[in-house]
Amino acid sequence: MKFGVLINEGPYQHQASDTAYKFIEAAIEEGHEIYRVFFYHDGVNNGTRLATPPQDDRHIPNRWTELAEKHNLDLVLCVAAAQRRGIVDQGEMERNKKDANNIADKFRISGLGQLIEAGIQADRMITFGD
Amino acid sequence: MEDQESGIIKKFIYVNRKAPHGTIYAHEALEVVLIAAAFEQDVALAFIDDGVYQLKKGQNTDGIATKNFTKTFGALDMYDVEKLYVEKESLEARGLTEDDLSVEVEVLASQDLKKLFNESEVFFNF
Amino acid sequence: MLHTINKSPFEKDSLTTCLRYAEKGSSILFIEDAVYGCTKGTQFEKIIQDNQQNVKFYVLGPDLEARGLDNSNLTTNIEIVDYKGFVKLVAENEKTQNWL
To answer: Beta strands of chain B (E only): which ranges?
Structure first.
């Protein structure tokens, strides 16, 4: 089965990102396909390259990068939400004349259309939020 | 956009349960609805619990220095989003009536709004 | 249909709202802070028991364990599942509504 996942909250602040991660891990083990993971609202903050959590705690952004690398996941940060919150890739940096970018590896920034497409194409859509 | 070619039409329901302005959920949820309009899906919006406050008349955010996105609800019919449902119990619990709302909606008791849930295929909660 | 609830019923009304919408034959899964709502001796115990003839209740085990709870703390007839069980519930139900 194809799953679409929507994550509405940032790392650490809410359990949403952790629960989504565990769910996706289990879904993959059960043989399902993750069509897309879409990050909205503060969820885009999961895609920062600049987090330095304490060494004895999980590194949420890195964990997403590693999972995406291992299973070829499509991690999408909503462009409008990312612009509001300052999560920037090379393209956004140039377009909006910023002096830096901070997107984590294996994440990409794209439009809300990607969320709708996931809703259309996936067999199941699950939301993790507050 | 790509998916208009696939021809798949699903019944989407946007479940709005949060008050406007105190958090961004209501505002950014509406942005999804507007973008989604381009995909020509079957869309319904349900306003339940504090979500009913999103549609209240007379909101003016000048004093709190935020954007008054609620004005955009008035433009939804231009995007062919016409199915707006408000839960009767939530309105009544908040001392509101249909007359307090800024747009045309259908007010339904939960036992009737439940049917919309049962007919929907993709559920978006923010 | 599968309903999930993630907020504690002492914090938010998502459980009571969910119960207005859960049809006969549906499943409700408690995750994250909502698991507190499954415990014995709370003001929510009765409404959960009353709905058990129509709805099957589940709770996510790892979230219970994180909060120092186990089967002995739960009200009756709530099935504990792990993340794989969560995935199975989503797969087996044609629709999923996540009450936040």
So the answer is: 11-16, 42-47, 83-87, 106-108, 122-125
Task: Give tens-digit pLDDT for A53-80.
Answer: 999 999 999 999 999 999 999 999 999 9
**Which chain A residue shows the shortest CA-CA distance from C84?**
A26
ipTM above 0.95, yes or no: yes
Give the global pTM: 0.97
Nearest to C95 among B15, B111, B120 (CB): B120
Report d(CA B41, CA A36) in Å as an integer: 19
A110 membership: H or E segment, kind and range: strand A107-110
Residues of chain C positioned with their CB less than 8 A from the CB of A29: 84
A chain contacts of residue C87, beta-carbon cutoff 8 Å? 23, 26-27, 30, 32
Chain C closest-CA separation from residue B12 CA (Å): 11
What's the pLDDT tens digit per position in C29-50? Answer: 999 999 999 999 999 999 999 9
C-alpha B16/C-alpha B28 separation (Å) is 11
Domain boundaries C2-99, corresponding CATH code: 3.40.1260.10
Q: Chain C residues within 8 A (CB-CB) of chain B?
A: 1, 13-14, 17, 20-21, 23, 95-100
Give the minimum alpha-carbon distance from A18 to chain C in angstroms, rounded to a whole number. 10
Which architecture characterizes domain B3-125 according to CATH?
3-Layer(aba) Sandwich (3.40)
Among B10, B28, B36, select the one facing A41 at the smallest CB separation. Answer: B28
Domain A2-128 CATH (choose: 3.40.50.1000, 3.10.450.50, 3.40.1260.10, 3.40.50.2300):
3.40.1260.10
Residue B123 to residue A80, Cβ atoms within 8 A: no
Question: Domain limits of chain A?
Answer: 2-128
> What order do you get walking across the sheet with C96-99 strand by strand?
C78-81, C56-60, C27-30, C2-5, C96-99
Domain ranges of chain C: 2-99
